[in-house]
Amino acid sequence: MDLSRHFLISCILSILLFPLYGASSFLVFLSGFLIDIDHYIWYALKFRDLNLKNSYVFHKKRKQLIEIDRLHIFHVFEFWLLILIISLIFYIPTIMIGLVIHLIMDFSEMPITSKNLRSTSLILWLYKYKV
Ligand SMILES: [Zn+2]
Q: Which one-letter DSSP state was computed for residue 22?
């Protein structure tokens, strides 16, 4: 999670797409940057700590992330599918563009051999923990 990179790329893309999509190009920024709010939600629930800075510092330390199974609710397949359906039904491709760019940046930061335990499926996570 590199918030400054997500912020910058989403902003630039939102501005570049403005002539094409008008005000809805702002959704590129929202879906490309604010989607990482789920990291804070997970941290706050897991550690009972609402301090935003603590959450940011925690997620910047990659070593400890490897050892903890995390469910970031906006980084799961089911959410991506929901966003795809919404963007198709209401014809708002900008929300999907922001999401795809965000995920490309996220996955490009992870080495292939990474033992990252972030769940990519809500259903599999629920099954795994028998919730
Ligand atoms: Zn992310």
A: G
Residue 99 C-alpha to ligand 1 middle, in angstroms? Answer: 9
Look at residue 113 in the predicted model and tell me its pLDDT: 61
- State the pTM of this model: 0.84
pLDDT means over runs of 10, the chain (131 residues): 87 96 95 93 94 89 70 94 96 95 87 70 88 71
The domain in which residue 120 lies consists of 3-129
Which residues sit with Cβ closer than 5 angstroms to ligand 1, an ion?
36, 106
CA distance 22 to 106: 27
Please give the C-alpha separations between residue 106 and each of 4, 89, 116, 119, in angstroms, as whole numbers.
13, 26, 12, 13
Q: How many domains does the chain have?
A: 1
pLDDT at residue 63, as a whole number: 63
| 48's tokens | 């009972």
Q: Rounded distance, CA 78 to CA 70, Å?
A: 15
Give the Å distance between the CA of 36 and the centre of ligand 1: 5
